[in-house]
Amino acid sequence: MKKANKLYEGKAKVIYETEDKDKLIMFFKDSATAFDGVKKAQIEGKGSLNAKITSIIFKLLEDKGIKTHFIGVLSERELLVWRAERFPVEVVVRNVAAGSVCKRLGFKEGFTFKKPLTELFYKSDELHDPLICIEHVEAMELAPVELIPRMKEIALEVNSLLSKVFDRAGIILVDFKLEFGKLPDGSLAVVDEITPDSMRLWDRKSGEKLDKDRFRFDLGDLLEGYKKVFERLEGNT
After folding, report:
1. Which pLDDT value is given to residue 114?
2. DSSP letter (8 states) at residue 29
3. How far apart are the C-alpha atoms of 192 and 206, rounded to whole Å?
4. DSSP state of 186
5. Distance between CA 66 and CA 153 in Å, rounded?
6. Rounded Cα–Cα distance for residues 185 and 187 (Å)
7. CA dihedral 193, 119, 207, 205 (to 10 degrees)
8. pLDDT in the model for residue 2
9. Which of 49, 174, 176, 187 could make a disulfide contact with 199, Cβ separation 3.0–4.6 Å?
10. Burial class of residue 106 (count of CB atoms within 10 Å of its CB; 0-12, 13-18, 19+)
C-alpha cells in the first residue's frame, strides 16, 4: 500500500491517503508535546514504539470483538487503517484519580474509584479540550447523540480488557482516552491510537509513571518508560 496525499498532520501523527479511498496510512512521529503544545521535544524512537503499542492493543481489541479502524502493520512507524468519520469527542475512563479530575474535583492523586468513572471531552486544541456532557454533544452536533451510550459502553469494555492485560504486566491502568468514528461500512469503531500518550500507566510495585507524565513533569526519560510498557505488553499478550 503506497502513500498518496497528506490528509492531516497532528502533534504526534501524519495521516496519508492511499490508492484505496477507504484506507489510510497512519504515520507516528517522534514529536512529544504537552500543555496544548507549549512544551515540545523530538524524541527519537517514540514514534515506532507508539506504533507497536497501538498495534498490539488494537489486535487485542479486535480479537475480543471490539471494532477498531486497524487493518495491519506496514512498517515500524506506519499502520494501515480504515478511513473513518471521526467524532471530536473523547471518552475518558478513569480507574484511579490523576490529572484534571484532581484539579477539578479535589480528588487526591491515587484515589481509586469504586467503579470506573467515564467523562466526555470536546476535542479542540483551541478550547483546551473542555469537559462536556451529552447535552453539549447534541447541541453542538459533535456526534450522533444516540451513539454516546454505546461509546461509553465500548470504553468500559476496553477498560475491563486492558486493565487485566496491564495487571498481568505489573502495570496499573490509571486512565485513558478513546476516540470514535464511523467506518466506511457505517459501523462504530475505536479510532486514532491507544498509547502511553493517551493513557496513564503506573508500575504496580514502585508507582513509577510509565506514560507521557514523564515528559510533562520531567519525571524521567520518556523513551525508557514507553519501552517498559511495550516490553511488558509484548510479554503478556
Report:
1. 98
2. P
3. 30
4. S
5. 11
6. 6
7. -90
8. 85
9. 176
10. exposed
CA–CA dist 155, 116 (Å, integer): 10
H or E segment to which residue 78 belongs: strand 78-82
Q: Is the CB of residue 120 less than 8 Å from the CB of residue 87?
A: no
Sign for the pseudo-dihedral over CA of 99, 100, 101, 106: positive
What Rg do the C-alpha atoms of the chain give, in angstroms? 17
For 154, 199, 203, the CA distances from 213, given in Å and listed in that order, are 25, 10, 13
Q: Extract the C-alpha cell encoding 10.
A: 497532528
Residue 14 has what pLDDT? 98
Long-range pairs of 70-75 with CB within 8 A, sequence gap ≥ 24: 71/23, 74/1, 74/25
Query: In sequence order, which residues have a C-beta less than 8 Å from that of residue 72 and are 6 or more positions away?
Result: 79, 80
Q: Which amino acid is at 12?
A: A
Mean pLDDT is lowest, of 33-37, 95-99, 175-179, for 33-37
What predicted TM-score, i.e. pTM, was given to this entire model?
A: 0.96
Residues 93, 66: contact at Cβ < 8 Å?
A: no
Within 8 A by CB and 6+ apart from 85, the residues are 181, 182
